[in-house]
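Troubleshooting log. The previous structure file for this entry was overwritten by mistake, so regenerating from the original sequence record. Sequence copied from the archived sheet and checked twice against the printout by T.R.
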Amino acid sequence: MAVYVCEVCGWEYDEEAGYEEGGIAPGTKWEDVSEEFECPLCGVGKDQFEKK
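Regenerated output below.
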């Protein structure tokens, strides 16, 4: 399990925790998160995240 960080605002997506508020179950790998995903804090796309 890895953590991905938004390069713009620093919000983190933790694969182990998921993002239940956004409908992403715990244990969901980053590659399985929809390409339509947007950072919940600043709104940038998935391409603006990097592996921590």
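The two ends are 11 Å apart (CA to CA). Archived copy saved in two places this time.
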